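Continuing from the previous page...

OK, I double-checked the sequence for Carbohydrate-binding module family 19 domain-containing protein against my notes and this is the correct one:
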Amino acid sequence: MVQLALKCSALLAFVLLAQGAPVYKRISQNTPDAKTAWEAACNAAGGAEKCNPIAVNAIGTLLAAADPCAQQNSADQMIDLAKQLNNDPNMIKLAQIFAQQPRNSPDSLSVPYCQQAPKNQELNGLFQCQFQGVNPKSFFKNTPVGQAGTIPLGQNKPLDPAGSCPAHPDGPIPDGQQLVDIVGGAAGAGNSNNGSGNASVSAPSASSSAADATGTDSASSTTVSAPAATAAPPSTATATVSDDPSADPTDDCSDDPTATEAPSAAMTVPATASATEVSVAGAAAASATTDATAPTATTGSGSSGDFHAQNAKDAQALNVKFASLTKDSSCNEGDEACIDGGFAQCVGGKFVNMGCGPSTQCFALPLVNKPGTTITCDTPAGANAKITASGGQGDVTGKGN
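Thanks. Re-ran it with the corrected sequence; updated structure tokens here:
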């Protein structure tokens, strides 16, 4: 059997080479890096708890499975908030740069351009650069240049040079790099000639105060924050998200060696985590349904005057259920959970694990200002402390009670 498999693989490899089947290379980046400068500027401008949900939502818009206009919509949200904060120029410039950051490509093909006008005029004429490793003549699903989505909105011919953007008119940027690190704050001019503007802004200082590590929630949103030991902008509970298509045309001798597979729809999972309470502008509404295999955050059953202890019990119950889940557990679209220590959401009937930041892991924890729970990334010690502070007995799962 082993010899047969080896012969099969060798024969198929020969056929692939003989027929010139394409070999795809995944081109990606550490997506959380793309929002760091803007979030720091937002905190410096006094955005406080409003900054993190927008920043976290922005991460997923750079994934290959994101809608072509999701990145622009996210930049619009950034500018909307900047205008609420005295038209903060740093936030606006960094939102313009974010709108031009290349998106991931799972198959070495260029990423389509948004064909809708932005909400804010500051984004007019701006579009994303491409990474250097993509094929400049072929877009998603091998769409040739000149077809819908291969030319930025407002332009009537292919870009020259291909892969360029207003902030980087010389061409595409090195694979995996952040545009903000390359241009140093120069957002470029959005115009039909794809020229570069000379407006620039220094990177904002990350010296704003930290969010309360005991839980960050407001009337409209619950943000996911990793507790900070020293004063710093709220650190988001996100990690590099993989959108690897895992397309392997050689996994069976019966496969057509010339066939290509569309990348799987691994999409963003906003790491703002109360399934029944969180409201993040621009993010898809999380499913509020629960079942035995895929529990999500719930609102506490205690009265409005005595909900803390009940919140702790509800969180402990969720953590017990999460411990029994795996990435292969059945789930409903939008369900959120902690899987193998990482924050996960159900996408396409399967959990997608985003992981957590360094030294942290995923827990269900009690809210502090109202009945309910949230799913967040924290240190084990910090999570246990929050359970205790809310009147819970034992650790995050109730052990030691």
